[in-house]
Amino acid sequence: MMNKTVILFTACLLIAFSGCNRKKITRTDTPTSGVAVLTCDDCYGNIAQEEIDVFEALNQKAFLLPVYASEKESVELLLQDSVRLAILARDLTESEKQGITARNRQLVPRSQKIGVDGIALIVHRSNRDSLISLQTLREVMTGKITSWKQLNPSSQLGEILVVFDNPHSSTVHFMRDSVCRGPLADDRLHARKTNQAVLDYVIETPNALGVIGVNWISNPHDSTQLSFNSQIRVMAVSRTHPATYHSSYKPYPAYLHLRDYPLTRDVYVVLTDLRGTLLSGFTHFLASDRGQRIILKSGLVPATKPIRTVQIKDHF
Q1: What is the sign, positive or negative, of the torsion defined by CA atoms of 72, 74, 80, 84?
Q2: Are residues 54 and 100 in the same domain?
Q3: In the prediction, which pLDDT does 219 show?
Q4: Domains in the chain: how many in total?
Q5: Potential cystine with 148: which of 12, 52, 155, 238 (Cβ 3.0-4.6 Å)?
């Protein structure tokens, strides 16, 4: 098999050349072979990489080159026709789809939901504040609440340090548009560049509040998906205020599926490439039983694979 470094270098040259003169490029890829570039919201980078690894193992002549970026950057790559497949925490808007078609009439954006995700709120293991309402979360994100003492008068933690992965990430987008429905207190939000960096920071910082994709904290060794990374504490979120034990939910797959967990969103694969290409083959794989099992293993809810819900009792 050809060295993958050579494949990557060759693909980059093809992309650069095709950007200058696309009409001279003859497509030779198939749904199971060839070289193709895709982009992925880096919130789902660990899931996408496993999907790619399995797909390439099943199709020895297929080489997928992922570009992990913020949601904003991934969408821009798609709109500019720099890539023709994106894995995102949202579907494209109608104006975005029309913009792609206006640029190239042969490209008709096709979106498919591949999973249901949750945004987790994580705190230091020693932090006993494990319940939060949407109203309180909104006040934290907009700067009205700045101290753990405002949540719990007996707390000794002081200032709440809110940490995200990236200022242009899908988690920031969700908090701004779906939770706060307005601007966030940017001067109080700290970006750590990656989801792994957010997790590491919360593990080490007692007064931190991390905002992170649930797949980054799931326990891969728990086949029931009823536990999280033991190095941090996961907060339960309530739609009603104040939060109580009975009204609050953690981002377990069952609660994501039932939409009981308030910070829930859908995951999409958006394809603008022609049918019969490698990227269309990978899109089909993502929605297949094998691809959906990988999503389930990550702690998300697969979109097309039936799941079983169970009644659980949690301790906060």
Answers
A1: negative
A2: yes
A3: 72
A4: 2
A5: 155
Residue 87 near residue 41, CB atoms below 8 Å: yes
Cα–Cα distance list, 118 to 64, 76, 139, 260 (Å): 27, 24, 20, 11
142 and 226 housed in the same domain: yes
Q: Supply the range of the domain harboring residue 157.
A: 117-264
**Separation between Cα atoms, residue 101 and residue 95, nearest integer Å:** 10
Distance of CA 233 to the CA centre of its chain: 20
Are 29 and 105 contained in the same domain? yes
Residue 310 is assigned to a structural domain of this protein: no
Return the C-alpha torsion angle 48, 51, 57, 58, nearest 10: -140
Inter-axis angle of helices 45-58 and 289-297, nearest 10: 150
C-alpha 224 chain-centroid distance: 21
In tens, the pLDDT along 249-261 reads 999 999 999 999 9
Confidence at residue 4, expressed as pLDDT on a 0 to 100 scale? 47
Rounded to two decimals, the pTM is: 0.86
